[in-house]
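Appendix B: complex inputs.
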Amino acid sequence: MTPNTARRRETSRRAILTAAFDLLQETGYAKLSIEGIAARAGVGKQTIYRWWPSKGAVIFDAFLMLSEATEGGPPTLPDTGDLAADLTVVLRATVEEMNDPRYEQPMRALATEIALDPELAAAYAERLDGPLKEAKRQRLRSAQQAGQIADDVDLGVAVDMIWGPILNRWLHRSGPLTAEYADLVVSTALNGLRPRRSAE
Amino acid sequence: MTPNTARRRETSRRAILTAAFDLLQETGYAKLSIEGIAARAGVGKQTIYRWWPSKGAVIFDAFLMLSEATEGGPPTLPDTGDLAADLTVVLRATVEEMNDPRYEQPMRALATEIALDPELAAAYAERLDGPLKEAKRQRLRSAQQAGQIADDVDLGVAVDMIWGPILNRWLHRSGPLTAEYADLVVSTALNGLRPRRSAE
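Resulting structure:
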């Protein structure tokens, strides 16, 4: 491949991914088609089929492109030494992002494709969710070392317990997704359901 | 409508819902079509379109028929007086159901349709998930009255925290869904992440 061919190819790839992301926001996932993406990107639909096996795979790569562009480096969580405060900041930001109409349709598309497609789920777990989960566990590990989390807590379960309720409430639309809800999730996860015998 | 017409109609309705559920298990949701359901049920596809606006709506009614047939009465959770033991039994049963290949495809279909369709999500929240959530809250309320859950715990958040991680792990295929995982979720939710100052 000559440098020019490689550059043209990369330009087409980005045009396709951008078109897919934009169309998702405009029309939603059910109406998204390879034909529509090709028309918007100004490429033939065979070009898309040559590089991606499904529209779910296109969406996945669009997310990957976006996350690389905005983050540049592995994700980290704030660590001020105050676990409750840091989790509150992070969960409120997550709630805000989930309520942002720009991300609504693309994130739903990705979530449902992952639910239906085991291969895509594996790619998602490895390339997008994995680094993020590791950053979450890392923040909890630091809290555990500081004595703010009990030694016998499984950090993977802790991550599921803090982020799971927010993700569920958003995905299944099972209730209002507010900063107050995020705060309650943080305090309930940290304190647990059982009555505490002694004040801290 | 004569009694005979009503009976024939109910027979067709059940045949369609059963066909939809069976086909889902065989082919998965992506390949499920109204044409396919009609052929399997032995009805014209116009009959289906007359009663349901989408394949998601058919699946929803199939679940409703199934849950009415198997449960007969509002759902309740076991209440032996020992909250941890009861939750462990219930969560292990949930994990087992989610790992049952018979439910895999239909439950994924329902979950993804709810994620994409706000109207279906509202119907699901009211008719299927609502009564179940109320049963869960009721069990926690009884524990709260018995002093096993702190007075200031929001029971809605508690329900999300106990069942959310299991549902997520299943839907996003983010890790093995085992009895051990269910047990860890119960103990972590009850005890919280913070170290406990005094033994119980």
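Chain B has two domains: 3-68, 75-191.
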